[in-house]
Amino acid sequence: MHSRWPWGTAGYLLVVVALSLTGCSHSPPDRRAQADQLTGQIRALPGVTAAGSDLTDRVAEGNVHFWLSVDVTDDVSSDQIAAIAGRYLDAVRAGEYPGYETELDVRHGTNVFTVDSRQHVAANADQIIGQARDWVTLRDQFPSATVTLNATMSYPPSGPGGRDRGHPSFGTIDMPDAGY
Predict the structure, then answer these.
(1) pLDDT of 157 over the 90 cut
(2) Which of 23, 99, 129, 169 is the most buried (most CB within 10 A)?
(3) DSSP assignment, residue 125?
(4) pLDDT for residue 77 is more than 50
(5) Residues 60, 126: contact at Cβ < 8 Å?
(6) The pTM of the whole model exceeds 0.85
(7) Those residues with Cβ within 8 angstroms of residue 147's Cβ, 6 or more apart along the chain or in another chain
(8) Rounded CA gap, 108 and 87, in Å?
């Protein structure tokens, strides 16, 4: 029995594979310029000693992310941390990183405040900024401890998160050995 397709079965399969691969090769737009600009803006903020970013867009490897790391001064204020977190959240909310996993890590020594946005826009920016302020307060109240705080993330119910509506905050305060 002969195929009704003019190219035969092999030609038909070739067309199907080609069309399938065309849909799979979609890459997020290159956001290096935006990442460099945001990193520079945050680096210039008061209380920041260093800022760096890691942007990767290797779709074939499943590795598409923009991670922003910020080191802060010993006497960074809660207002300064709020400005850092707010500027990051504004950039993500503006849609500058569609398709990218995004994360902000603010560090002082071993202390870390993290905003793990994944591929979503946070619906709770004010809460996150408040938690950034809380991180400074905890660091000040426990100066010899290591304070790690991951911000609460909430995503819009109609957003691209699907079933992922966010994740709660969690944190640790590791106290130094008292020598008992």
Answers:
(1) no
(2) 129
(3) H
(4) yes
(5) no
(6) no
(7) 111, 112, 135, 138, 139, 171, 172, 173
(8) 19
* Report for 51-60, 86-95, 100-109, 129-138: range of highest mean pLDDT: 129-138
Give the relative orientation of helices 78-93 and 32-43 as an angle to the nearest 10 degrees.
170
Q: Are 46 and 73 in contact (CB under 8 A)?
A: no
Token couple for 72: 């802060």
Q: How many other CB atoms sit within 10 Å of the CB of residue 144?
A: 7
Chain center to CA of 71: 16
Q: Which residue matches tokens 């707010």?
A: 86
Report the b/e string of 30-50 with b at 16+ CB within 10 A: ebeebbeebbeebeebebbee
Are the CB atoms for 172 and 142 separated by under 8 Å? no
Crossing angle for the helix pair 125-141 and 78-93, nearest 10 degrees?
Answer: 150
Kindly provide the residue ranges of all beta strands, DSSP E only, lying in 19-81, ordered along the sequence. 48-58, 63-72
Is residue 122 within 8 A of residue 156, CB to CB? The reply is no
Angstrom distance (rounded) from CA 19 to CA 90: 37
